[in-house]
Specification:
With 364 residues, this protein is α/β, with parallel strands linked by helices. Helix content is 47%, strand content 12%. The protein has two domains: 266 residues, TIM Barrel; 66 residues, no CATH class. The chain is built from 15 helices and ten strands. The strands form two sheets. Strands 1, 4, 5, 6, 7, 8, 9 and 10 form an eight-stranded parallel β-sheet that branches. A two-stranded parallel sheet has the order 2-3. Helix 14 links the parallel strand 8 and strand 9. Bound molecules: zinc ion (ZN).
Length: 364
């Protein structure tokens, strides 16, 4: 099914949900919980069109429209404050407007250059989960998945399959479910490798390509930017040192990723850091226990849903803001689609795209 047809069908279903009152019913249920939204990149529309991970880059205009809608219909707080407010509301008074927290993963440069100022203009504050090694390494450093995709894109299309399969020693490295998703399939394959093997494969691919890719457009904030965001009232949390897939790490490496990133942020900010976000949303019981032992008070996942009464603060579900799913034709803001995504309307019945409610999706 084409993207345009899917959008049209979703539009018809959205109108039916709105007119029938089903959407409003879902919203009333959502208002009983805390909705945590996930964003990655917010970029000018022309950059989004050529971005290698289309699901992760939201056009700035759409972000502004969402922010306008949210400030009119919800109470937007940084995640730590929202969790406290949620506990208080439940103990002392019923919810007024639904609580919403906006989270921004990874620590790209536009967090301080663009997103922070946009939030401040709307008189709200957000939560930024920072990959400390990415920020600390300086201007030329890339997150491993961006490096993987940019190196992949630097190969001539006809050479990609043979070069990558040769380096990986695995012809299945590019066998993918979607015919047009080679770059995403390549990063998915890399995710299943250990960090040392992944680094060696990428170094070999860089040699095959003839050098490291240009980091322009994929850079991190600087340390001073992170401190500046905090000084302007935003919340900073950890997203590990190097954005690894945590369940695959040894106990010692896992501890370093959790503790060293926390220490770095606390040094930069001069205050305790309480929030954590699992890279890629991947976690298990061992990782969850290690996060608590490292001194964090709460942790976000990519599990879809709303945080409710009695929810596990170390496995906070979120709503991934996927540009294609919240936009009308031409990428314009579509309020009904945005409301549908906030409520997880279709997934709660599992009939829209086959996912059950609470299933993990997207990257963190
Ligand atoms: Zn991430």
């Amino acid at each position: 099914m084409t993207g345009a047809l899917k959008r049209r069908l979703r539009g018809v279903a959205d109108q039916a949900a709105r007119v029938s009152g089903w959407l409003a019913l879902c919203e009333r249920e959502r208002a009983l919980g805390l909705t945590v939204l996930t964003y990655h990149r917010v970029l000018p529309a022309e950059r989004c069109r050529s971005y290698p991970f289309p699901g992760l880059a939201l056009p700035l205009d759409a972000f502004r429209s969402q922010l306008r809608w949210l400030t009119q219909h919800a109470r937007v707080l940084p995640l730590g404050a929202a969790l406290q407010e949620f506990a208080l509301q439940r103990a002392e008074r019923p919810a007024a407007r639904p609580l919403v927290a906006l989270t921004f993963d990874d620590g790209y440069a536009e967090a301080s250059a663009c997103i922070g100022p946009e939030l401040e203009r709307a008189d709200v504050r957000g939560t930024f989960f920072v990959t400390t090694g990415f920020v600390d390494a300086g201007a030329g450093e890339l997150l491993w998945f961006d490096r993987a995709v940019l190196l992949f894109g630097a190969l001539a299309p006809v050479r990609r399959r043979s070069v990558v399969a040769g380096i990986c020693g695995d012809p299945r490295a590019l066998e993918l479910p979607e015919p047009d998703a080679d770059a995403r399939g390549w990063t998915r394959w890399l995710k299943r490798r250990g960090p040392l093997e992944r680094e060696a494969l990428l170094a070999e691919l860089a040699r095959a390509v003839g050098g490291e890719p240009d980091a322009d457009g994929f850079r991190a904030m600087r340390v001073a930017d992170v401190a500046e965001l905090r000084a302007r009232g935003h919340e900073i949390g950890s997203h590990t040192v190097s954005h690894p897939i945590l369940p695959g790490l040894s106990d010692e490496r896992l501890r370093c990723e959790l503790v060293d990133s926390k220490r770095a942020l606390e040094l930069w900010l001069g205050e305790p850091v309480r929030g954590f976000c699992h890279p890629n949303g991947d976690t298990d019981a061992r990782v969850g226990a290690a996060v608590a032992r490292a001194g964090y008070a709460h942790a976000c996942t990519t599990r879809a849903g709303v945080f409710g009464a009695g929810g596990d603060a170390f496995a906070i579900p979120r709503v991934d803001v996927v540009p294609e799913r919240v936009s009308g034709s031409g990428g314009a803001f579509e309020p009904t689609a945005f409301r549908r995504e906030l409520c997880n309307v279709y997934r709660r019945r599992g009939w829209a795209d086959g996912r059950s409610r609470g299933e993990s999706r997207g990257r963190a």
